[in-house]
Design brief:
The complex is a heterodimer. Chain A is of the alpha/beta class. Helices cover 33% and strands 31% of the residues of chain A. In chain A, strand 9 and strand 10 form a beta hairpin. Chain A is elongated. The two termini of chain A are 56 Å apart. By secondary structure, chain B is of the alpha/beta class. A 7-stranded mixed β-sheet of chain B has the order 1-14-2-3-13-12-10, with no helix packed on it. In chain B, strands 6-7-8 form a 3-stranded antiparallel β-sheet, with no helix packed on it. Chain B has a two-stranded antiparallel ribbon with strand order 4-9. In chain B, helix 3 links the parallel strand 2 and strand 3. In chain B, helix 8 runs parallel beside helix 12. The chains are: A alpha/beta, B alpha/beta.
């Protein structure tokens, strides 16, 4: 790709005008001016620097939200005449904190630094680097790209230290090996249940299968303290508000923080994400679990219109009996919420619903104005919350002004 | 400057070798005549077009010489030459083909096609000898090479053939057709004419037309007093000295150099022709506007973030309308149900009269029962009613 700058158009226009004026007015002065301008342009255009070598060094390629990473771009080329415009492309989800990712440099051995701020989780591409090679007068450029794409992984923000300080009420940690009389991956037999596609073959109880004519698997007692299942609503409707602060992002930050705390206390954490599809991650513990959960959460994209009712129906076979469930949903735009909650509670799960109120985030978009539609939606939501509470679910209404720590304390994880 | 550059360029690139060219050192060239000009005179060779005469600063002291043109002058060129003449310019035109008539007719002079033969010739009938030419500025003999003749209606003849001369109009080499008006009857013919016989100074223009260009070529220039005649004529036309311009643009240079030569005429036309100036100026102006219009400047490299974007889902339209009536009704019924602590099943089986007692508000009850707004209410007022409703 190449192109002319506006300056080039200006110069060429000026020279053309001078030449025409020299013709019309038979003026040698204008002629000299026009020819000089043209000559300068031609001379400048004959000096385009050669392609330099570009290397980028990322200070850190994995950060948490609100953290920063410094980037250094090295340009190595011949000391030609002309100019280099180096632009290191960044993901739209990243901010520049310090300096600029675009630099105008004379050819040669150069480098520049900039600092990026990562306020939003995700796998953010850094690069490729775009180079424009300009002539000395910035008239014409030849543009190319260096295929040096890297990835900056931004994990959701976690409040780990504080969450440890929070006294747990539901899930009290105890020292030593504990048998919880719950299904898990321990050695002691617990019960038999129907086979699901994700069960390993060595758990199939062949005798029971032969007796009943359908595949059954053994369930064993868990050796951790407890399992906690997080149910994350990632439908499109959860992305109301700003890109950085909306029900989905809050939910993800909550899960990351809570999961970190739970895993540190030797618990196991499972995750169900629904949006355009339903993804179930069975409870897992150990040192790699947090990384796995963080990567899963990092990759969540708000999309789809799956209902909670359909999600629960699909996920029930994967849910360990009586496992406490923490649901994160704005409880909006879904007529099946009551039915889904009733279904879960009916199966004996303790249910905590943390609901970052979508309409409150939307209200913030309208600068907090009390609009008729907002009032209507709030009335509807209030009724729903009362209904869910009356069913036995613990509902925590998370308004935008409440921070994550407060909710973590309230939940008691 | 353009003129100088184009002339220098053409001069450097085009070693002309056509007949009657001042650069031609062969027998048919004019190099000897050109070289014999007095040093006091400035000499220029015009390689492109006589339209450049429009740019001449001092036409009164300038002599334009066109010998043996091999193409006709264009109207623009004729205009330029005429204007040059009117500004006091001097012209020496020599042709035996009639190509130059388009120009000489402006001065009431016409070259007659057909070779002139005379009983007085030198060695060969093609070489016509003119004895005893007597002019104010010259007296002597001339030898012409296959001359034609000319006629004129104003001005004065300078050189005339003998009474026994005749013009071979039909080109068959014999004197026939002597009776017709355009016949070949013998008689004196004019070979050189001047438009202003009383020409004295440099203020007024003067044109001399000679019906034989080849009398000045290298082969002939030393014959008789041809060279002296040329020098005397130039001295007569430029008594105070000045500049002599030889028109080489009318000589067709063959091959690639000829193409370049013809191409170099374009900028000269652009420089000198007023109509072309207007056209070119307009075209350039339009082109510049078009360039400015279609020019797509390169985008400025700047990091753009989408983090400040916001999204809405439920409150897309902040107001409520008749379309929200079903939702408002449902909201109100939920509110009544939740307030009374009833299950959905029990509430759905509730009779109307009991519901009316629970609501205790005629407007709201009508709204719930009919599913439409009472006449005096709009949606916003109804929303206020619903919002402020409380079970007593």
């Amino acid at each position: 790709m190449s192109g002319f700058s506006t300056r080039a158009v200006g110069y060429s226009s000026a020279s053309m005008i001078l030449l025409v004026l020299s013709l019309v007015l038979s003026s040698k002065l204008f002629l000299i001016g026009g020819l000089l301008t043209l000559a300068m342009m031609l001379i400048s255009l004959s000096f385009i620097p050669r392609k330099p070598k570009i290397t980028r060094i990322l200070e850190r390629d994995q950060v948490f939200e609100e953290e920063t990473s410094e980037v250094m771009v090295k340009v190595e080329g011949k000391k030609d005449m002309g100019n280099l415009e180096v632009f290191d492309r960044l993901s739209l989800g990243l901010n520049l904190k310090d300096s600029s990712n675009c630099a105008m440099l004379p050819p040669g051995k150069r480098s520049f630094r900039y600092e990026i701020d990562a306020p939003l989780r995700g796998y953010h591409p850094v690069g490729p680097t775009s180079i424009r090679r300009w002539d000395p007068m910035w008239l014409w450029f030849s543009q190319g790209e260096v295929d040096n794409k890297q990835q900056l992984t931004v994990f959701p923000q976690m409040v780990t230290e504080r969450s440890k300080m929070v006294q747990t009420t539901q899930f009290q940690p105890k020292p030593g090996e504990l048998r919880l009389k719950r299904v898990g991956i321990g050695k002691e037999f617990h019960s038999i249940r129907d086979y699901t596609t994700t069960d390993p073959f060595n758990t199939i109880n062949w005798k029971a299968t032969a007796r009943t004519g359908k595949l059954l698997v053994n369930q064993f007692e868990a050796e951790s303290i407890t399992d906690v299942m997080f149910l994350l609503d990632s439908r499109m409707v959860t992305r109301v508000g700003s890109m950085v602060d909306n029900p989905l992002e809050r939910s993800i930050r909550f899960i990351a923080s809570a999961a970190s705390g739970l895993l540190l206390s030797s618990n196991r954490v499972g995750l169900i994400i629904f949006g355009s599809s339903v993804s179930v991650f069975k409870p897992m513990g150990g040192p790699t679990a947090l990384t796995s959960i963080l990567h899963t959460l990092t990759n969540v994209t708000p999309s789809g219109y799956n209902t909670m009712g359909a999600t629960i129906s699909y996920s029930l076979p994967y849910l360990t009996p009586n496992v406490p469930i923490v649901m994160l949903s704005p409880l909006s735009e879904d007529p099946t919420i009551r039915e889904a909650v009733k279904n879960l509670l009916g199966r004996g799960h303790s249910l905590t619903i943390i609901s970052p109120s979508g309409i409150e985030f939307e209200r913030a978009v309208y600068f907090g104005k009390l609009t008729p539609k907002y009032l209507l939606k709030r009335l509807s939501r209030e009724s729903l919350v009362i209904d869910l509470r009356s069913m036995g679910a613990r509902v925590i209404d998370w308004t935008p002004d409440q921070d994550l720590v407060k909710i973590l304390r309230e939940v008691g994880i | 400057m353009i003129l100088v550059i184009s002339e220098l360029l053409a001069f450097a690139l085009l070693p002309t070798s056509s007949d009657l060219s001042v650069e031609n050192h062969g027998q048919k060239g004019l190099s000897e005549a050109y070289g014999s000009l007095p040093d006091e005179l400035d000499r220029e060779i015009l390689l492109t077009s006589p339209t450049l005469l429009l740019e001449e600063d001092d036409p009164g002291k300038t002599l334009f010489i066109s010998i043996g043109p091999q193409r006709e002058y264009t109207l623009t060129e004729i205009y330029a030459i005429e204007k040059f003449y009117n500004r006091g310019g001097k012209l020496l035109l020599a042709d035996d083909t009639g190509r130059i008539n388009i120009l000489t007719n402006r001065f009431d002079i016409t070259i007659i096609e057909g070779q002139l033969y005379d009983e007085t010739f030198q060695e060969h009938p093609d070489l016509v000898k003119i004895d005893d030419v007597q002019l104010d500025f010259f007296s002597g003999f001339l030898v012409l090479n296959r001359p034609s003749s000319l006629i004129f209606s104003s001005g004065q003849g300078m050189v005339r053939s003998s009474p026994s001369s005749w013009v071979d109009r039909n080109g068959n080499g014999i004197m026939d057709n002597v009776t017709s008006a355009q016949g070949e009857a013998p008689g004196p013919r004019y070979l050189a004419v001047t438009t202003d016989p009383d020409f004295q100074g440099s203020k007024s223009g003067n044109v001399v037309v000679i019906s034989d260009p080849s009398m000045f070529m290298n082969l002939m220039i030393q014959e008789a007093d041809n060279l002296d005649f040329l020098l005397a004529l130039i001295d007569h036309l430029l008594p105070e000295g000045g500049k002599v311009i030889f028109d080489e643009g009318v000589h067709q240079t063959p091959g690639g150099t000829g193409i370049i030569q013809r191409a170099t005429r374009i900028p000269v036309f652009l420089v000198t022709d007023i109509n072309l100036k207007i056209v070119v100026g307009t075209m350039v102006a339009i082109s510049l506007f078009a360039l400015a219009y279609i020019h797509d400047p390169p985008g400025v490299h700047r990091h753009e973030s989408i983090l400040d974007r916001t999204g809405v889902a439920e409150i897309v339209d902040p107001g409520i309308s008749e379309d929200d009536i079903t939702e408002l009704r449902k909201v109100f019924l939920d509110r009544v149900r939740v307030t009374s602590g009833m299950s959905m099943e029990a509430f759905s089986n509730l009779p109307w009269d009991q519901l009316e007692k629970m609501i205790e508000n005629d407007i709201l009850f009508k709204f719930v029962r009919d599913g439409k707004l009472p006449g005096e209410m709009d949606m916003n007022n109804m929303l206020v009613e619903v919002r402020t409703w409380e079970r007593k």
